[in-house]
């Protein structure tokens, strides 16, 4: 299975550059971590092999907003998702602002 993410900051209308993230499995084992690149993408996730199961992709939104000099409400955005088809590509995007975030099953 391949995994990717893309974070967009709707308050600035730009990719969320430098947003820290961590991928863990259902046992809490760290599988990958990094920061989003200049396009708001998480390049470290492409190297992770994951099978069927439940995973958590946690984004350090508090650190991201503090670095930008912005006061936000959510210190962390956690996206919990389940992989049922390990052969499929799974894209887990994050749309964020200082006072909200959303996600969806991307392609």
UniProtKB/TrEMBL annotation:
<dbReference type="InterPro" id="IPR023416">
    <property type="entry name" value="Transthyretin/HIU_hydrolase_d"/>
</dbReference>
<keyword id="KW-0659">Purine metabolism</keyword>
<dbReference type="GO" id="GO:0006144">
    <property type="term" value="P:purine nucleobase metabolic process"/>
</dbReference>
<feature type="binding site">
    <location>
        <position position="104"/>
    </location>
    <ligand>
        <name>substrate</name>
    </ligand>
</feature>
<dbReference type="InterPro" id="IPR036817">
    <property type="entry name" value="Transthyretin/HIU_hydrolase_sf"/>
</dbReference>
<dbReference type="InterPro" id="IPR014306">
    <property type="entry name" value="Hydroxyisourate_hydrolase"/>
</dbReference>
<feature type="binding site">
    <location>
        <position position="6"/>
    </location>
    <ligand>
        <name>substrate</name>
    </ligand>
</feature>
<comment type="subunit">
    <text>Homotetramer.</text>
</comment>
<comment type="function">
    <text>Catalyzes the hydrolysis of 5-hydroxyisourate (HIU) to 2-oxo-4-hydroxy-4-carboxy-5-ureidoimidazoline (OHCU).</text>
</comment>
<feature type="binding site">
    <location>
        <position position="41"/>
    </location>
    <ligand>
        <name>substrate</name>
    </ligand>
</feature>
<dbReference type="Pfam" id="PF00576">
    <property type="entry name" value="Transthyretin"/>
</dbReference>
<feature type="domain" description="Transthyretin/hydroxyisourate hydrolase">
    <location>
        <begin position="3"/>
        <end position="106"/>
    </location>
</feature>
<protein>
    <recommendedName>
        <fullName>5-hydroxyisourate hydrolase</fullName>
        <ecNumber>3.5.2.17</ecNumber>
    </recommendedName>
</protein>
<comment type="similarity">
    <text>Belongs to the transthyretin family. 5-hydroxyisourate hydrolase subfamily.</text>
</comment>
<dbReference type="InterPro" id="IPR000895">
    <property type="entry name" value="Transthyretin/HIU_hydrolase"/>
</dbReference>
<dbReference type="GO" id="GO:0033971">
    <property type="term" value="F:hydroxyisourate hydrolase activity"/>
</dbReference>
<keyword id="KW-0378">Hydrolase</keyword>
């Amino acid at each position: 299975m391949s995994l990717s993410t893309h974070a967009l900051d709707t308050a600035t209308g730009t990719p969320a550059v430098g947003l820290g993230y961590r991928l863990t499995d259902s046992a809490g084992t760290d599988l990958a971590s990094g920061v989003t690149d200049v396009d708001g993408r998480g390049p470290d996730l492409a190297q992770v092999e994951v099978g069927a199961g439940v995973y958590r992709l946690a984004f350090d939104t508090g650190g991201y907003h503090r670095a930008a000099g912005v006061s936000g409400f959510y210190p962390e955005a956690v996206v919990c998702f389940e992989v049922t088809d390990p052969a499929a590509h799974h894209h887990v995007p994050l749309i964020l602002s200082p006072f909200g975030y959303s996600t969806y099953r991307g392609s």
